[in-house]
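## Example record

The block below lists the input lines for one assembly entry, exactly as stored, with component labels intact.
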Amino acid sequence: MFSNTLEILSDLLESPSQTVQRIVVTRPIPLGFLAYLVGAVSLFLSRCLAHRGFLMEPGLPLFLWICFWQLSLGFFLTALAHLFVEMGGGSGSAKGLFVLLGLSELVWAVTLPVVLILGLFLPVQGWEVSSAFLIFGFLNLFFKAKSIQVNYGVPSSRAWFILALPYLLIFILPIVFMGLTVWGIIS
Amino acid sequence: MDELNPMGESHSSRKKNLAILLIALYGFSVLAAVVILWRGGLRTKESNGGASAISLLAKRKKEAVGWVSIHGPIFESQSGRIWDLGVQQWVHRLNALAEKPEIKAIVLDINSPGGSVGSVQELHDQIAKVRKQHKKPVVALFGDVAASGGYYIASACDKIVAHPGTLTGSIGVIFNVTNVQGILAKLGIKMDAIKSGKHKDIGSPTRPMTPEEKQILQGLIDDAYSQFLAAVSEGRRMPLEKVKPLADGRIYTGRQAQSMGLVDALGGAEEAVQLAAQLGGIKGKPKIVREVDALDQFRSFLETEFGRLYQVDGEAVKVALMEKMERWGQSSLEYRWVNSW
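Predicted structure tokens for the full assembly:
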């Protein structure tokens, strides 16, 4: 399995398009899980190094929470994206999408050495490190949209729209809930 | 068949070597991150002032003064859970700060009319522990009011700083008993107690107190009062004979209290922090670290924002008043200045 993983990773560097097509067909789920885990570790360490805010004090519980969150978000995005595509008449593999979305999290693995290098010479709370997070965050979203596009064969604009929908749900639902709560208290 | 390079490696083995190299570099990054975080500690944004990693690795952790706010009446929390508010949470905050090696001294920001005897004594003992076990000086800073129990806990501190107009003193004990016999009679309600001993319902709100009961309760008050005097005498290093005349329950301004030796210095937050830094051996302008967790900030936000909604709702005001009356109706031994809620 390690040899297969190495082969996929090395092919990903050399010929990304062909490797992605291969992943859609072979659907190496363990690689997907591994990629989510690597993404979670990298995100946790890079944000701790950069002293970016968390809701909890940094430590093992927070790390476990981030791992759980990344994986849950992966499942959630995969499920919703697959549902929206199928509702729109498209077809593709949910497993393949799950692996591809996991591989998009590997962007955070690059963030870690970048934050380390920037942090050696600059204050970690400066705009440079913030910009790095923004850029890699955007790359993460870009690769996610690309995953949807490749997996379902939909146009790029539709892939971005499908990607935006679950995030909108994640942010809008709590706002609606809070609004209803406040309205309930006031009335 | 793969082409071989001059070193005899095939194309596929070159690809694998490249992947292994990248994985090794990533592993090295993770190791470096863990070492840096381990050495520097997983610190909050406030605690390292935005310095670069090189300067962080080269320097020691910046020394700081801890800050704990004790605002409002001092009582046990309703449930003891971390999301509740009460003496357990203040004790937790005090301990959390005292255990941090970079905290060299603590400022206790007190704005309290006091509270129940047990809770006040718990906080007092915790402050004494911090001073004794962690060897960290604690400076009390008085706000608008630091009376009765508020003064009790301050007496455990190394120094007390008050504003000239702070209201303090009220050294004494009170036991409130509410007699609702009249109103119950008007409602046609009669209460009967069947008890194992004649004093089992001592302090009952449904009947007047007997002289014997008053004597018993006075004994309780006197004992709690002597504990208060002893705490002030020990904490302020004043003989008991000097404390007693000051401890008839009257309140003082901060300036008056200073002239009597109950307060060490007049000033505000800055003076208290400077004094704490000086006692803790911190050079230069000290950093302040408040032990406030995210849950506490969120709760405080809810109380501040949504609490205002209740001020315009008559029904909710009635509910709040009834809750206060329920507290007044409960008999308990308190180090509290009763002019405040």
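Chain B touches chain A at residues 12, 15-16, 18-20, 22-23, 25-26, 29-30, 32-34, 36-37, 42-45, 48, 50-54, 293-294, 306, 309 (CB under 8 Å). Residues 11-40 of chain B form the longest helix (30 residues).
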